[in-house]
Design goal:
Chain lengths: ~260, ~260
């Protein structure tokens, strides 16, 4: 008989608890923060109370939504370019090992360059507006995607490869029917990492100059004016976008690889 | 490697096969001067301790490794030509099923790769699943099946393109004793219908004796054939075969050959 399906999936009560517990912790954290700020009379420009941040969010909602969308476009475009290049280089270097050996040192070196060093150069090369931010995000997401994809493409074991060999499979068939599906879980994990990185990269890129109605520029200018609660509100919006982006990828993962050991029902 | 003229009456011919492996610690000899001929429709087991090169020998027959020395002929061809002609199906110790494919689509895999017409895939796969008794699980995923069932899917997949030879590398080694005995029984049932030439690697003496028409006993590294024991128990073999005194005699013979090896 087949094994009973895993019973680790929570029931309705368990699911509710999984939502409620973090929500309670979140609320308690905010309440504690609020209490400490009020009780200790902390100056607003050092640490604004959550209620102040919320008020700023509400007041500037229209501006923040527009600025965040501008920044998110950079994140999305950079993500798309970085991931596409990462997958492309991974596929080529798994097929031709000599390419991997030639390119890998440069990929590692590129990944070690701090954004702080690269951002001013990117502005010189790609312009002060969205181009430079896209370049920064692409550079940040390229490496995790490439490394993840290479690992995934090389994950089939000897028996799985020998099986294809015994069928007289072509290199292309091995790739399409074995390597690519095996790599998919690794690629999607890399995408999740890259999704979070891309919003960070876009915001940090904007710290070095950019369009006035963008999250990064707004955060820097408000901080310089000691408008700390406005800066915090912008950070909250950036976080929300980052989380949303991550959740979209996680949803795609559920659709694409329901067979994977971590997602089986 | 030159291929001798086809040997009549033999499906697989191994002539003075020797295998060296290069390792950082130096060269080791895995197989030494192995000669064996296997007739069409025979069920031959290779048995030996770990490191006797029995899996290596199977992989040489299947052209997954090229021997360092000696000559090999499979179905009148070189192993490479035999592999290209899809002369054998192979079953490994782990079932090597693709998690992203249903049971039926796993069995269809070789048909897809080999370019069978699309309309033949499903009928063939379902016929094979009938053969191994898993038709009603065709829409399941491999990870929803027990280990024994997964291995039956692997057997169905190996037979899907009707190869004349079936190579099996400790296919039931990971199963518990009772499941293994049941799988042995089922394999003989399948073999009675397909009549493939089977080469079966195992380190279970009882399994080798129960299944085979002949058992080749290999020595520890470097592997040589110590003795070939003919198993003259009549087919079909059943649970009563395991209680037959001749079964015990043959088990004892294989065991003492292994001791001397």
């Amino acid at each position: 008989m087949p094994r009973p399906l895993p019973s680790a999936r929570p029931g309705a009560a368990g699911r509710l608890r999984r939502v409620i517990a973090p929500a309670v912790v979140f609320a308690a954290g905010l309440a504690g923060w609020e209490a400490v700020v009020r009780a200790a009379h902390i100056q607003f420009y050092l640490l604004p109370a959550p209620s102040e941040i919320a008020r700023s969010l509400a007041e500037n909602a229209a501006f923040l939504i527009g600025a965040a969308w501008y920044t998110a476009q950079e994140a999305l475009a950079g993500f798309a370019i970085g991931c596409a290049l990462g997958i492309g280089v991974a596929v080529v270097s798994v097929r031709w090992r000599s390419v991997a050996e030639t390119l890998l040192p440069y990929a590692i070196a590129a990944n070690s360059v701090p954004i702080i060093a690269f951002a001013p150069l990117a502005i010189v090369w790609f312009g002060v507006e969205q181009g430079s931010k896209i370049a920064i995000v692409a550079m940040m997401t390229f490496f995790p995607t490439m490394v993840g994809t290479v690992r995934g493409l090389l994950s089939p074991d000897r028996d799985a490869l020998d099986l294809m060999r015994s069928y007289g499979a072509t290199e292309r068939q091995v790739f399409v029917k074995l390597r690519a599906p095996s790599a998919l879980p690794f690629v999607l994990t890399a995408f999740k990492v890259s999704a979070s990185l891309s919003m960070i990269g876009a915001v940090v890129g904007e710290f070095f100059g950019g369009f006035a109605r963008s999250l990064g520029v707004y955060i820097v200018s408000q901080t310089a004016l000691f408008h700390t609660r406005e800066a915090w509100a912008a950070v909250v919006v950036a976080c929300a976008y980052g989380i949303g982006f991550y959740l979209v990828i996680a949803g795609i993962e559920r659709l694409l690889i329901p067979w994977h050991v971590t997602l089986r029902r | 490697m030159s291929v001798p003229t086809p040997t009549p009456g033999a499906m697989i011919v191994l002539d003075h096969v020797t295998q060296w492996f290069d390792a950082p610690a130096g060269r080791t000899m895995a197989l030494h001067d192995v000669s064996l001929r296997i007739a069409p429709g025979e069920f031959v087991s290779l048995i030996g301790p770990s490191g006797s090169g029995k899996s290596t020998l199977l992989r040489i027959i299947g052209d997954l490794i090229s021997p360092t020395g000696g000559q090999v002929q499979v179905n009148g061809k070189s192993p490479r030509e035999a592999r290209r002609a899809r002369d054998y199906g192979i079953v490994f110790q782990s079932p090597v099923l693709y998690d992203w494919r249903t049971v039926r689509r796993n069995v269809e895999l070789p048909l897809e790769v080999m370019g069978y017409p699309r309309k033949e895939w499903t009928p063939r796969a379902e016929r094979m699943l009938d053969l191994v008794g898993l038709r009603q699980f065709r829409a399941h995923y491999p990870w929803q099946l027990s280990g024994g069932m997964q291995q039956r899917v692997a057997i169905a997949r190996a037979l899907a393109f009707s190869p004349p030879i079936l190579l099996m590398d400790e296919p039931f080694g990971a199963l518990d004793e009772l499941t293994r005995e049941r799988m042995n029984q089922e394999l003989l049932g399948i073999w009675a219908q397909t009549r493939n030439t089977v080469v079966f690697v195992t380190h279970s003496i009882a399994e080798a004796v129960f299944l085979s028409s002949r058992v080749a006993v290999l020595t520890p590294r470097p592997g040589r054939i110590e003795e070939i024991v003919a198993i003259d128990l009549p087919y079909p073999r059943t649970a009563t075969t395991r209680k037959d005194p001749r079964f015990f005699d043959l088990v004892t013979r294989v065991r003492s050959a292994l001791r001397e090896a």
